[in-house]
Design the sequence.
């Protein structure tokens, strides 16, 4: 029986990246739908749960994606609201690759150093990857702040993560690189989660900071988020700090994404979100 992965995307066009990884993860067919919302999802979900016998439902799965994590989370919840005993399929949330990217980055940081009790700052943390990375750091016992160019956005991101994961994050307004340098002055852990091609820190703003122990940069498009690092950095030491670049932990991100897709077809009752994706990442790291 064919393994069918239905890609439910909140954007108009389903992500090509997610489609490719869906096939690489073991799906025989990936069927993408874009522009989805809680209001129009019901007939699609019903199509996945009513078409195969109970023993065969594990061969159908749903992947929720898109560029907007909040919209994805809402859609993810809406999909599950249409399940009932005996009629459900496994489902995964990874809007903007945020769960798998953040999980891979923080798992690699955790493999390099103890995170508990340390101060962590997620730069440009209001986006999907930044919010999830901040949550995972907090769950590992770090004291976490996230920065945004506008305080209102940083506060909203912290509130969203408090409501979803019950973690306490501290918002910091940091409009420019000088403000971001000030935000990491006494941090031991720094994660850069900004937009592609946007430098958040210059090399001079972190290299002589005696407090920083480990850093990760999720940006693989020059200029990198953290100047003076390399996207290929794989837990190497630079200026007394351990550095993970986007490609350095990217191999784990892709392997994790594929592994999660494969898991969807092992059972029809799996629900893969940040918590269990991060747990798997730590095992794989």
Sequence:
């Amino acid at each position: 029986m064919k393994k069918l992965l239905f890609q439910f995307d909140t954007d108009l066009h389903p992500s090509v990246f997610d489609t490719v990884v869906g096939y690489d993860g073991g799906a025989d067919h990936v069927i993408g739908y874009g522009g989805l919302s809680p209001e129009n999802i019901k007939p699609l979900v019903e199509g996945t749960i009513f078409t195969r016998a109970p023993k065969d439902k594990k061969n159908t799965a749903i992947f929720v994606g898109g560029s907007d994590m909040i919209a994805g989370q809402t859609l993810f919840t809406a999909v599950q609201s249409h399940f009932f005993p005996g009629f459900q399929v496994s489902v995964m949330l990874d809007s903007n690759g945020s769960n798998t990217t953040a999980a891979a980055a923080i798992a690699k940081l955790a493999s390099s150093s103890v995170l508990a009790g340390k101060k962590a700052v997620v730069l440009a943390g209001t986006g999907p990857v930044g919010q999830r990375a901040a949550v995972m750091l907090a769950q590992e016992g770090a004291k976490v702040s996230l920065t945004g160019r506008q305080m209102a956005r940083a506060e909203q991101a912290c509130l969203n993560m408090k409501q979803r994961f019950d973690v306490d994050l501290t918002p910091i307004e940091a409009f420019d690189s000088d403000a971001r340098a000030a935000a990491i002055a006494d941090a031991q852990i720094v994660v850069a989660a900004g937009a592609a091609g946007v430098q958040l820190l210059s090399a001079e703003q972190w290299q002589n900071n005696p407090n920083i122990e480990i850093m990760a940069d999720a940006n693989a498009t020059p200029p990198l988020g953290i100047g003076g690092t390399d996207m290929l950095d794989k837990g190497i030491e630079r200026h007394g700090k351990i550095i993970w670049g986007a490609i350095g932990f990217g191999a784990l991100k892709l392997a994790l994404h594929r592994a999660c897709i494969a898991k969807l077809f092992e059972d029809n009752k799996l629900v893969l979100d940040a918590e269990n994706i991060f747990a798997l990442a730590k095992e794989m790291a």
